[in-house]
Amino acid sequence: MHERLGLRVRFALFFGALALGGTVLLGGALWFGHARAGGPADGYVIAGVLAGCGLLGLAAWVGLLFDSNVARPIQALASDLQTRARVDIAADIDEAPARYLGALAPAANAIHDALAATREAQDRAVAERTAALNREKAMFEALLRDLAEGVVVATPDHRIMLYNRAALGLLGDLGLDRPLTAFLRPEPLTHALDRMGARAARGEAEAERFLAATDSGERFLMARVSPVAVEGQRVGYVLIFHDATEDLEAHAELDHLFNTMLEAVRRPTAAIGALFDAIESDPDMAGEVRSAFFAQLRSEQAMLVDRMNQVADRYGVATTRRWPMPAVASDDIFDALTARLPEDLRFEGGRQFVRCDGFAISELLGRVIEGLRADGRRGGFVLRAVPEGREVCLELHWTGAPVSDGQIDRWLETPLSAGYGEYLGRDALEGHGTELWAEPTETGHRLVLPLVAAAAPVLTPADPRPEFYDFSLPRAAAGTLADRPLSGLSYVVFDTETTGLAPRQGDEIVQIAGLRIVNGRILRGEVFNTLVNPGRHIPASSTAVHGIDDAMVRGVPDVVSVGRRFHAFCEGAVLVAHNAAFDMAFLKMKEDRLGLRFDHPVLCTVLLSAALYPHAEDHTLDALACRFGVRLDPEHRHTALGDALATAEVFRHMLDELQATGVRTLGEAMARANEMHRIRRAQSY
């Protein structure tokens, strides 16, 4: 029976028994005294009642003091030690509540320090043994991240295990353990996988190629898929792809241009042929008639030339689109030229950015400079980049003899470089949709090469997402989510900031943020964080809490747009929040407007804390952060993302605690949380 009674209950029973026994002994003593002394019993009864009440009160008071200063601190110390035995927490145990327990609290901290030292030694040993593996991992990550082609590795049931930066740019907001079919049309992929499986059954292990489209249909991708097999069993597949949208559009446009050219040429050439036949069939044709025929010939020829020029212009535009045109700094081009042709060549002016093939332009200008220098009649070469509206003119100035258009044309009619095959300098100009010409200046002469101006490229962090692969994703479990283990689930931990506390009275969301936990890892790179236009005034009292005012939400998306994006972000995940009922109420109120249902399983860290630590009086986020040694940045407290991140750190520790106490599935965790629902009214949040 004593194993079923808690420490505080046993102490209460002890003091209750002490008070009851003392009262019985006191009553027996008074009865014995009265029996020996005789006389009226009223005085003995009054004395007994007063003494008994006093004894009961004294026992209750001492018992309460004992409960507050001994029993509860002992329970708290035991809970803290159990937590540290299960979870790696760096923060020391708070000794203040156990100040009357003598050396017990310092001894508990000594155990904690010894455990921390042991874990630290183990971590050092593991770190030393995995240093080489980490170096290989870093090289793998750098290589994968900077590949120009998109790469995705997925499980057989299409959950993403890996993606790189190019895939992120092509497919959108990818995430680990999210379904690839949410970003890519599934039919072509499924057919390619079926073909790959059929070929594998015949002993062929080649990649399957196919054309796919993004889920929105905005982009077409040329892709190839290969199996990933371990010991003969397929455990996933690798998808490599690049954007083929412009290639397909250019191919279609070139086909259209070819057909247009045929139609444009057919009628004038037929008419010209007919006119020649008519002239040749009548040698004695009158002069006026012959002149009319020749006038018609000139008209048809002019029409043919005009239509050919139109097609040529459209062809030039189409081929320009296919030429690789990144943003290039002008001084990078000039540096390449001065390194190649150092004598008597310098550049002046500031940096400009142009959209061009930097190598092709450098080769073309280098060829021209070599031609200008060849006869020794020119010198003082200066390079400049001059912005002019939407263009930047690369200018080459010199003193000495001029240059003719014929000389420039001869320099442009030679192959540009061995690396470009038969492409000429003239082809490079046409590919860039520009021209090169010479003209005199006040001090000499210059060559002018206009190129399309470009904005300075925005430098992005080397690794925009710190977690972009996880090859240890658990296999998809059969059955409902409730039967799946907590360790095999994906979670979205989220928080909202609002105009007030009453969603049913018109309060609205002004910010929502969430981040994902996959395979026990907080994915700090897969974050949803946005302001929301509430469509109403934000009270000053609310702004004082979260710092968001009317000016900050002016022009940002409304709750319908943000809510749909957040719903997609949460697909297939369990929702987690601190005091989840509050945040979910705001989302549930908007379901009809969104046309979507937030029917995800929900876990609340308040209720889980009450289930794990029933002796604790405080289940606020600050209290839980203190318990688990989670640092809350004051600047980010009461921001949606800051609170979501703190809740995620707390919840990750709670997962270990829940499994250590025998709660292993989602259904069991939800049942424990529901049992504690009644505690919410007695706790502060």
UniProtKB/TrEMBL annotation:
Residue ranges occupied by any Exonuclease domain in the UniProt entry: 490-660
Catalytic activity: DNA(n) + a 2'-deoxyribonucleoside 5'-triphosphate = DNA(n+1) + diphosphate
CDD domains: DEDDh
E.C. no: 2.7.7.7
Keywords: Exonuclease, Hydrolase, Membrane, Nuclease, Transmembrane, Transmembrane helix
Listed SUPFAM superfamilies: PYP-like sensor domain (PAS domain), Ribonuclease H-like
Segments passing through the bilayer: 12-32, 44-66
EC main group: transferase
Keyword Transmembrane: yes
A molecular function GO annotation: exonuclease activity
Membrane keyword on record: yes
Alphabetized Gene3D superfamilies for the sequence: PAS domain, Ribonuclease H-like superfamily/Ribonuclease H
Chain's role: DNA polymerase III is a complex, multichain enzyme responsible for most of the replicative synthesis in bacteria. The epsilon subunit contain the editing function and is a proofreading 3'-5' exonuclease.
Protein name: DNA-directed DNA polymerase
Lineage: Bacteria, Pseudomonadati, Pseudomonadota, Alphaproteobacteria, Rhodobacterales
